[in-house]
Amino acid sequence: MPNIKEIARKAKVSVATVSRALNDDPKVTEETKQLVLKVATELNYKPNIVARNFAKKTSNIIGLILPDITDEFFSELIKGVDEVTYQHNFFTMVISSHRYLQLENTLSSVLRNGLLGGLILLVPNISATLKNILAQTKIPFVIISGGMSTTNYDVVSVDNYQGAFDLTNYLIKKCGYSKIAHITGPSDNDDAKIRVKAFKDACLENKITVPKNFIVEGDFTRESGLRLGMELMSLKNKPEVIFAANDMMALGCYDAAFKKGLHIPDDIAVAGFDDIFVSQYLNPPLTTVRAQIEDEGKRAAELLIEKIKSKISVNNQPKKIKIATELVIRNSTKIIK
Amino acid sequence: MPNIKEIARKAKVSVATVSRALNDDPKVTEETKQLVLKVATELNYKPNIVARNFAKKTSNIIGLILPDITDEFFSELIKGVDEVTYQHNFFTMVISSHRYLQLENTLSSVLRNGLLGGLILLVPNISATLKNILAQTKIPFVIISGGMSTTNYDVVSVDNYQGAFDLTNYLIKKCGYSKIAHITGPSDNDDAKIRVKAFKDACLENKITVPKNFIVEGDFTRESGLRLGMELMSLKNKPEVIFAANDMMALGCYDAAFKKGLHIPDDIAVAGFDDIFVSQYLNPPLTTVRAQIEDEGKRAAELLIEKIKSKISVNNQPKKIKIATELVIRNSTKIIK
DNA sequence: AGGTGCAATGTAACCGTTTACATTGCAATA
DNA sequence: TATTGCAATGTAAACGGTTACATTGCACCT
User: Fold this and answer.
1) In chain A, positions 98-117, which contact chain B (CB-CB < 8 Å)?
2) What is the pTM of this model?
3) A313 falls in which pLDDT band (50, 70, 90)?
């Protein structure tokens, strides 16, 4: 396995010159650069990245920390991240936080062992301990999270507010629904929180009053959608439409409607958020909100690499990137007015 | 950032002793080991993994090379791989081969730059150039691929044969279908090839003759399923059931049936392979074959780590691991006899 | 007591690359 | 011609570990 020493010998120059030539240092003559490159090619030389990272005390590996659960978004996200990192000669390392409690451990060791040149962190919210850990680290990072509230960080997030607002607004203004319920996500999840907020704001703006028992807390699972959907459909004065904070819970509502013998959208309408792959194939197809997840990954990676390359990040205004959403109207809701 | 030199100073021992203590070398006294560990903890020491990998000329990073396309399996696969690697103190690096032509390039540089300690390679088939590259590499690898034909490699694969055979057999023996068609995957895809083989064998064993025009080649996309489904359904003597080589093409057949005004399963039955998430929600739910993809990732990672740790792999008999499949019977097929 | 063997620890080379600093040699200048 | 300055290249230290080899000192043997 050839190294720069060998190239240096063959090209009759010093290792420093070889290193400089290979790194396009302007201080080396075009002539010697060509010579070095020629010899390197002849020897089929490949730089030892570990040695380089070690010497430079940097790394061209970007860590992508994912929550424990498997999610169909992840492969899109990973694809987006990897595409950008690859273009910039970086690598993508996927790290699942295997138990949530271990996230902090995993993180604090991974951040300090020199392996990573940057970090993309996908988290449901930013805990105090997490803040602590992030405060101590020197390597640049970007957070993918619903909450933009996290004022001091660079954050990429789906535009939950716009998406949920548009959908709610559509249900009220275009469809004519006035009895409208919402199944929220977990109360500690930033995405979920913002969707509730947008839902409430849209109702308020349209002068729709929402009874307390029309807003119920789920946990993004299908089971919770089923359970809470049953509850809502069992009310004496039941809603005309249920807006579930994600498609998975909307799916649970389909199950609930089936159990109650209710027809969607005639007896009860349902809408979701995410536009997971299955949604278009449901019977009826689900009205929902779509976000470009692959794009989210790309934007996060671009932002991170920008930070890595220009180390001025520190005192800069933190960047907030929102991934636009798009209303996807299908047949689980209808125009009733 | 503390390093072993600092620990050595504080503990009044040499760096060699520190290194040994941290690596659980039996040659160091329990007493000094405890002392070193105590000091290390006090200093909140984290080993520099890059330096270690560099010194040992090994790496605890496992590369997972994925094809360009986004697939819902990938996140399951990644999860399985990462879970195992994590348990063994390895990391998982995901590398998408961004254009198929670049796979060879990506690979040959990645294999030689010292970054990876092992490789899991997901490929539709093993080309000659790929064989060449793999022949030259020193680092251990495992292939995830449909074809077990690849005799000289360690391979983990879904048991395509058993799955396709069982399904075909079920359609004939249990359901009583005798006019049975098959939409294959791409002819250069090993998984697809084995599924066809199993389909034919099962038909043969049950003395069912399949007309030539009942076996048509798709490319695993929904569009090809639609197109070929239309073709098959337009035949004068059309099949009673279509076995599509994956669920995506089965989905296309649903579209085709809808266009032709045919009812599934009464006018035409459909079966698939993979049991993707959407299949259970189709109308009617799809009869198909399921494989444990996460398990596939785990097995591949386990096998690879075993190879890495015991470097005797070379002259050993190559390991062939098959991931069992399971018949999933739903309502897109029915018993007609 | 002196020698032997071995367990515990220390010393220093080494991994491949980068880079601060030193050196060289040539062109421009007085 | 001697001096200066700078561009090109060279020398060697440094990065943080691991490990071959050297050293130490103690227990055991004769």
Assistant:
1) 98, 109, 112-115
2) 0.90
3) very low
